[in-house]
Amino acid sequence: MPLQDIEKQIENNERRLQKLKEVRALEGKSVDPRVLIEIEDIQEEIKKLQKEVETKSTDLKKIYVAIIAMTHKEATELSTGSIFNNQKERQDWENLKASLQEHGITDFTACYEESRDKWKPLISDEDTIQDIIEEVVQKLNNGRTKSLIEPKYLSHAFLSADKDERQSVWDTLSESGGVLIIDAISMCHSDVRHTYIQSQLSGGRTPITIIVVSPLNPNVLKVNELLEKQIYDVHMEQAFARFVKHLDPCYEFGVGNICNLRRWLYSTLPNIGRRGLDQDTQEAVYKERGRPRGISKAVTGSTR
Question: Reduced to 3 states, what is the DSSP secondary structure of residue 67?
């Protein structure tokens, strides 16, 4: 049984136990013996469930997750262009915005909320990124009694205005590893992009898993070329190298299909900390699939 369900059972039992104790206190010696028996039974059940919680808690694998996505306020700033002081950045955004509009994306601000974890990828069916992660985690934990996964979200602190708060999170991720899920459009917002650059977590030296989510199918080349430029400017050259050259499963770019996002999370979350593929496996994957397509083609110079 999932840990959350056990904790809910304990909560329900404790509520029932409290009511029975109130009955016992009111009726005193005349209380129905069945009430006393039920009190004893519930107390024993609670002890049993608490031991189960302790056992499962020791088997939990906490995984740090940071959603690098705009808030609704930041999305509005990007949409209107009010965030830009640099003319070149403004023009780059206008070019990308026009390309997005060609593909029917005219208002993306509704995809963003006050909480970064409530971002709704344009490729999803109204599911938030947190909904998607929780769904995948539930599937991974289903039927397991050990090595249960529990995501711990650090999205707000990662992009916090408080320097000490975000530095603390960056240090935690650098030391313990985690997952960065990056909204490609949000990388166009100068504050989000610059804060991400400061974290220095895009290289291959940290135990970080990175996925960049595209607003469109990765094969829409014109849009992706513009997005690739934005991502390249975030100093993610090493991450791209791990994606293309090393076929590292911990790095994924240009996910433009919600099913692919769920599959990537399902296969990656249990394996945080593992690195790359061996040479033979790399060659086998190249032979079968060719080099990766989508967001990475322009910045890596890949031609296949």
Answer: strand
In tens, the pLDDT along 142-165 reads 877 677 888 999 999 999 999 999
DSSP track, 75-138:
HHHHHHTTT--SHHHHHHHHHHHHHHHHTT----GGG--SSGGG---TTSSS--HHHHHHHHHH
DSSP per-residue letters across 134-147? HHHHHHHHTT-SSS
Give whole-number Cα distances, 19 to 12, 26, 88, 219, in Å: 11, 11, 67, 61
pLDDT in tens, 123-134: 887 899 999 999
Q: Which residues of the chain have pLDDT under 50?
A: 275-282, 284-286, 288-289, 291-304
pLDDT at res. 74: 96
| Domain co-membership, 217 together with 171 | yes
Together in a domain, 125 and 53: no
**52 is in which domain, residue-wise?**
3-58
Q: Are residues 233 and 125 in the same domain?
A: yes
